[in-house]
Amino acid sequence: MEKSALQIARAAYQPKLPRGLKGAVKAVEGAPTQSVDNQEEIKALFPNTYGMPLVEFVPGEEQQYEPMNVGIILSGGQAPGGHNVITGLFDAVKRLNPENRLYGFILGPGGLVDHNYMELTKEVVDEYRNTGGFDMIGSGRTKLEKVEQFEKGLEIIRELGIKAVVIIGGDDSNTNACVLAEYYAAKQYGVQVIGCPKTIDGDLKNSQIETSFGFDTACKTYSELIGNIERDCNSARKYWHFIKVMGRSASHIALECALQTQPNICLISEEIEQKGMSLADIVEYIAHAVALRAADGNNFGTVIIPEGVIEFIPAIKKLIAQLNDVLALPEAKDISRDEQVDFAKSHLSEENLAVFNSLPVGVARQLALDRDPHGNVQVSLIETEKLLSTMVAQKLEKMKKAGTYKGKFATQHHFFGYEGRCAAPSNFDADYCYALGTSAAQLIAAGKTGYMAIVKNTTAPADEWKAGGVPITMMMNMERRNGEMKPVIRKALVELDGAPFRTFAAQRDRWARETAYVYPGPIQYWGPSEVCDQPTRTLALEQAK
User: Fold this and answer.
1) Of 17, 272, 436, 480, which shows the fewest CB atoms inside 10 Å?
2) Under a CB-based contact definition with an 8 Å cutoff, are residues 427 and 525 in contact?
3) Is 201 a known active-site residue?
4) What value does the mean pLDDT of the chain take?
């Protein structure tokens, strides 16, 4: 594989490790845990992996470990730093015993089921240190949830002598990891399962997980691009830029990018839901800001939109919930796509049907037809940025006729998604992921299963980070999925009383009127630590540092 000059230089970077993971390690157990909600239901579903203690790694004494082989799976969408989880796991596994071997399952969880794998040797792993992407072994979205999958996977686990499987993924993937861990524990197969918290969306966090890996790099990548657009916007002074960013279930990326770049407008889905805003209310809000800036002679601006915002508009959220239930009905499975819209409409309540009919035809069809493998609306396919700018233009025309607006309104549209998912990891993500991989190895060595590797105190220097593990059941609750109640890891939404949102809310009225843009520039890898080693604004504000 040919390398760029940056890759060659980055390969030499040695990720920093917490003090507790350097040298010999001892696992210290804390108090027993319980799930965040629905304790009785979760305990009944996971009797073998429920109530286990938190684990923290501290310096210990050297000890001998029997040889063991480990399998690793990348699951779901890409996030910067995945390769460093693998390199951290590889280095730690080899330190435990040089005879240990690491096997990567190809193209995600399906690789385990289909027995598609490769051994990850030093030669392979060294090619990918501190690089973005998941291309070392690829990723996939196969859900591990059926007994036949677990048993088929066990065949190759036994053949390769694998003691533990590490699954790197988001909330759905780690829910599957927990189900797999429980199954193997119940059957007493002696196979451990460990998870790692990955998602650029930033919604896999809680009292134990301060941030999911990839969020730092993705936000810095998007903020660089948004800053570039803001500078162009302020140079040409003739366009309003509507910029959609990743974040289906939560607005963490939009909020972080707003804190870094200070756009004129940033929509926060969670606030829209809390205030009960309609699509018309959102359009009114944006049009008002456009008119205010036009009155100052500024016919340009930037608007940041989280991709999932449409799902948080209460009336549309109600509609989507009923659509999900209707499309999960057995009779919905046997009809063609052309018939599906009429089928859905015929089963909607009067209120939801009125909302459905009020939407642009293309958007309504997408809500009724397009689903991802988890049964969710594929909101990234809905061009919310164009929908909103079109509706704002229509509103401004009415305001012009009424004499309350005299400006010009020309637009440009952007969607930043794939641009950030495979970026070369920031120093923070390179260090954080390497520590997560190392923690996963130590959880295996400590005999744990059904745990997620964690690293805390991450706004301090890396030496002071605290590494360990949390039982995955601790993060779970029951939610309706595809018409049924299922155990899932609870998503973390933007907290409207949290420091990151309050900091944004205190300044947004000024940003809306003024041109207060900030241009963060590219991610820095070398230079003073105050430039290179900074965490996201979100994390710094949450940790009050």
Assistant:
1) 480
2) yes
3) yes
4) 94
Residue 487 Cα distances to 180, 250, 475, 481, angstroms: 13, 19, 10, 9
Helix segments in 12-114, DSSP class H: 39-45, 82-96, 109-114
Q: So what's the pLDDT on residue 253? A: 98
CA distance 408 to 393: 10
Strand partners, 166: 72, 194
**pLDDT tens per residue across span 38-90:** 999 999 999 999 999 999 999 999 999 999 999 999 999 999 999 999 999 99
Considering only CA atoms, which of 223, 244, 260 is closest in space to residue 423?
223
Rg (CA), the chain: 24
Please spell the DSSP secondary structure of 412-480, one letter per residue.
EEEEESHHHHTSPPPHHHHHHHHHHHHHHHHHHHTT--SEEEEEE-TTS-GGG-EEEEEEGGGGEEEEE
The string of pLDDT tens digits covering residues 326-355 is 888 888 778 887 788 888 899 999 999 998
The owner of tokens 């993060």 is 475
Which positions ≥6 away from 208 have C-beta within 8 Å?
A: 54, 454, 456, 470, 474, 475
Alpha carbon distances (Å) from 495 to 251, 262, 435, 488, 507: 10, 19, 27, 20, 17
Residue 525 burial class via C-beta count within 10 angstroms: exposed 0-12, middle 13-18, buried 19 and up:
middle
Residue 373: is its pLDDT beyond 80? Answer: no
Q: For residue 297, what are the β-bridge partners?
A: none
Name the residue with tokens 């030669």: 123
What's the pLDDT tens digit per position in 214-250? 999 999 999 999 999 999 999 999 999 999 999 988 9
Query: At 23, is the secondary structure helix, strand, or coil?
Result: coil
Q: What is the rounded CA–CA span in Å between residue 317 and residue 501?
A: 22
Contacts of 213 (CB under 8 A, 6+ apart): 79, 80, 81, 82, 85, 196, 197, 198, 429, 432, 433, 436
Judged by DSSP in three states, 72 sits in: strand
- 367, 377 in Cβ contact below 8 A? yes
**CA–CA separation, 28 and 467 (whole Å):** 11
Contacts of the segment 318-323: beta carbons below 8 A, 24+ positions apart: 318/351, 318/352, 318/355, 319/348, 319/352, 319/355, 319/356, 319/367, 320/367, 320/377, 322/347, 322/348, 322/349, 322/352, 323/348, 323/352, 323/367, 323/368, 323/377
pLDDT reported for residue 372: 66
Task: Tell me the one-letter amino acid at 52.
Answer: M
Contact by Cβ (8 Å): 242, 388: yes
pLDDT tens for 307-318 read 999 989 999 889
- Look at strands 451-456 and 466-471 and give their pairing: antiparallel
